[in-house]
Amino acid sequence: MIAEYGLFFLILSIIFSTVQFLRPLYCSSSKYNFFQEDLNFDIKLTHLIFLSTFLSFACLTICFLKSDFSLNVISTNSNSQLPVVYKITGVWGNHEGSILLWLLVMTFFGFLFSKQNIKDAKLKRNVLTLQGGLCFLVGIFIIFTSNPFWRTFPPPIEGRDLNPLLQDPGLAIHPPILYLGYVGFSIVYSLALAILIRQKISKDIIMILKPWVFISWSCLTLGIGIGSWWAYYELGWGGFWFWDPVENASLLPWLTGTALLHSIVVAEKSEKLIKWSIILSVLTFSLSLLGTFLVRSGVLTSVHAFANDPQRGLFILVLLIIVIGLGLILYWKNSNKLFDNKNIELISREGAISLNNIFMLTMAGTVLLGTIYPLFTEAFFNKKISVGAPFFNKTIIPFILPMVIGMVVGPFMRWGKDDLLNIYSRLKPLMIMIFFVATIFWFFNNKGPIVALLFVLLGCCLSVSSMFQLFELIYHNFKKGKKSIFKIPVKKISQSIAHLGLALFIIGSTGTSILKKENIQFQQAGESININDYEIVFSGVEDKVGPNFISSYATFNILKDGKIKHVLNPEKRQYNMNKQITTEAAIYSTLFGDVYIAIGERSIKNKKEYWTTRIWYNPYTIWIWIGIIFMSLGGIISIPKYLKK
Asked: Would you say 568 and 587 are in contact if contact means Cβ atoms under 8 Å apart?
């Protein structure tokens, strides 16, 4: 009966969304009070949409906890032996539940926006109306192609189990946070369309748009980072980014969202790049939907992809066409009526930001081309090809060098117009610091491919630049007699922190990708190998029983200078229900690098037991995760200021 309640609340959500979307169409012509313009009524409708969707999602969660195997989605993605935490995460560990989560997040953002104090009532109503339309389309998609409350008869006695790769704490938080990023851009999209409908934009409206861009971008950054962290420690291949099509699909809206974030900053400061901001708002949410299409339709092969279903893919494609088409039509008709100073001096802060935006959009276009190109070769030439890391590394990495230079120099350039001599004079103290840091870096670390050394050095330069700006702000703040660090403008602090995060990410990803060392060997208990400055002793493997799996549990002692620094326990697990085998890596992290160990197959030679072991030393890996946290934090700390305004 709980499932029927869940379906009822889902249908109720769709009905409320339909009313919210269609009601304004009758407002001007209808004589009935129900159809008259009333912002308070629209706000109440938004609350009802969120409440009914939340109750529907809660009902599905209860069904998972009770192991109601009469529901098809539960019988295929759970079982009675599954730990409670994974029964909960199993709600979104499948297509149907994850799309319901998508709808819940979308209604949640509508609910949050309805709480924002906005003077322009017409603009707010238009945003809520458009958001209601999006919720209606997603709700219809769920009901007709992805109903999580679909029952199966006769119900099985036991479920098949959740995919073992998803039985991990990282997957408990990765999809919800990623969806906060993906779906958060729906509000940005609705705001952009509402601005085009109103044919009016001002600094106040930009201030309304900005926090939603920051919220969505920060969550998307953190979500991608958590997914990358999960792939690093869970999949057992020693890397953090595979250029998988679904990884690329999440990177696309991140790149355009980053360009949007910087365009919004310029629009707020000088009322330039306004049209860029509008079109990037449409493009970013469209790319979020494109990523969903690529995952759910099965048109691309991916380790992340759900079961193929052409009907679902067609529906999402139609939704994508509606979203892009509506945005482009409104932009084509009304964008010329928006005020936008087009004159941007190249030697200015706006010029540096615009140039970096072009680089980011070019990178996004390259990633998109590399991701969908195999589709065209298969469709038109009946030839299957794969585009992998070599292509993306060769085409994306060259853009990073000029981008980082722009990020180092840009903050020291004036708004409006500047000249090279003034920029040089402001950069001199920074250049001296960078030269000093570069010399120290080269003295201690001058081994490795020149490309790796160059990019680690670039990361160091950007980190020095970011910290220099931060300390300069603190110095001028105290010089003016403001002895509290909280008196410093938040947006300047957030910029320095986010750029510092990117610098750390560049250092970490370069070390992990290019400077890593790898050993693959057969080992028996008692044998050791040396990697970097560590001696790694293999102590053996024992069998252990987990809550729903059995494990080959290995022990490795990590020694340095003859002393045990750490003990690592990588595993091979076999899950009881589906007999699937997974590799659980073990990692010893320090500020300078990770010792990463995974075990493979067992073999017997001359009556002795040997195990295949893979041991990596990945320099600076921890800086990837610290950098991602800093980038997200840089966006998050500026949000309260704009919401308050």
From this structure: yes
